[in-house]
Amino acid sequence: MFLRNGLEPWHLLIVAVVLILLFGSKKLPDTARALGKSLRILKSETRAMKDEPGQAGTPAETAPRTIPEA
Questions:
Q1: How many whole angstroms separate alpha carbon 54 and alpha carbon 61?
Q2: pLDDT per residue over 12-70, tens digit each?
Q3: Confidence (pLDDT) at 1
Q4: pTM
Q5: Contacts of 20 (CB under 8 A, 6+ apart)
Q6: Over 50: is that where the pLDDT of 7 sits?
Q7: Which pLDDT band holds residue 4 (cuts at 50, 70, 90)?
């Protein structure tokens, strides 16, 4: 089919040329730096969400509730 061979080296070369033509060679390093910073922030935030105490599933929240007698 059309994408049988996947990406070949000349595909990546064409993509690089198009990016340089669209954004210019001066803006590409800044764009890559901003993208890297955003990915680091995203990774640290997802790690913090996983490690955060008080999430659903803690023993205090999953304990059966008792009904007080009148």
A1: 9
A2: 899 888 988 888 888 888 888 999 999 999 999 999 998 876 655 445 555 556 666 65
A3: 46
A4: 0.46
A5: 28
A6: yes
A7: low
DSSP sequence for 35-54: HHHHHHHHHHHHHHHHH-TT
Domain boundaries, the chain: 7-44
| DSSP 8-class letter at 69 | P
- Class of residue 19 by CB neighbours under 10 A (exposed 0-12, middle 13-18, buried 19+): middle
Phi, psi dihedrals of residue 6, rounded to the nearest 5°: 70, -155
**In the Cβ-directed half-sphere of 7, how many Cα atoms lie within 13 Å?**
7
Amino acid at site 50: K
- Side-chain-side CA neighbours of 48 within 13 Å: the count stands at 6
